[in-house]
Amino acid sequence: MPVVTISRTFGAGGAPVGRELAHRLGAEFLDRNIVAMAAQRAGISEEEARGYDERMSGVWQRVANVLATSGSEFDLPVVPESQDVPGLGTEERLARLTRAIIEEAAATGNAVIVGRGGAFILQGNADVLHVQLHAPLDVRIRNLATRVEEIPENARPDEGSLRDLCRTMDARRAEYIRRWFKADWLAIENYGLSIDTAQIGFAGSVDVILAALAAHAGLAKSATAPA
């Protein structure tokens, strides 16, 4: 059963590509709902957990939430008691719970996991395909600008603000990976497949990932076949 992690620069299409890929695979789609699941297990509100997830506040948090929303969530598991770890702060508890959720999804199989360090958590798993999505900054700004109507008019950003938002979100994501995994978020060697979504679009990116999955599965079968 395929498992794919997707790392993405902000505005490069991680949510729409991941969502469509999951749909075509009939797979579970884990994106921002990972935060909600970790919050439930930690016994805190989702709003508080999102603060640790993106480390933004005020109008930029609201704008980022709208622009990055997956638009697809799954029922959360019922966890009646907080899965607390004595002696750990909230941020570290959330990081550990996020790791556990991603590892559980990978163990179950047939999952598309967007962000949250999935490529680094599952780095040693040969059965997982790690994908990086990127695009030039101007293209990412145009991608986001097509969605500004989803944002309340009094919070609607202009092009300069979107440019700043892309840079800020990318920096936050890079810092998260450096802090928890001591790794370079954009280093190509961390991924099995890197796609410029500006070159082939979101639909084309899904097609390329599906083709890579087929090749990946074929290599795995060849490696395990008797000589």
Draw up the topology in text.
Layout: E1 3-8, H1 14-25, E2 28-30, H2 33-42, H3 46-54, H4 58-68, H5 90-108, E3 111-114, H6 118-121, E4 128-134, H7 137-145, H8 159-181, E5 193-196, H9 197-224
Parallel strand pairs: 1-3, 1-4, 2-3, 4-5
Helix pairs in contact: 1-9, 2-3, 2-5, 7-8
Strand order of the largest sheet: 2-3-1-4-5
Sheet-strand content, in percent, reads 5-15%
CATH architecture: 3-Layer(aba) Sandwich
Order of helices and strands: EHEHHHHEHEHHEH
Q: How many domains?
A: 1
The main pleated sheet reads as:
5 strands, parallel
Pick out the low-confidence regions: 54-59, 69-87
> Average pLDDT, to the nearest integer?
78
Q: Give me the CATH superfamily.
A: P-loop containing nucleotide triphosphate hydrolases
Amino- and carboxy-terminal Cα gap: 24 Å
SSE-based structural type: alpha/beta
State the share of residues found in helices, binned by percent.
55-70%
Number of helices: 9
Instruction: Classify the fold: give the CATH topology.
Output: Rossmann fold
Shape estimate: globular
Gyration radius, in Å? 18 Å
CATH classification, class level: Alpha Beta
Number of strands: 5
What does this structure look like?
With 227 residues, the protein is an alpha/beta fold. The protein has a single domain (3-218), classed as Rossmann fold. It is built from 9 helices and 5 strands, in the order βαβααααβαβααβα. The protein has helices at 14-25, 33-42, 46-54, 58-68, 90-108, 118-121, 137-145, 159-181, 197-224; strands spanning 3-8, 28-30, 111-114, 128-134, 193-196. The protein has a 5-stranded parallel β-sheet with strand order 2-3-1-4-5, with helices on both faces. Helix 2 packs across helix 5. The chain is globular. The two termini are 24 Å apart. The model is unreliable at 54-59 and 69-87 (pLDDT under 50).
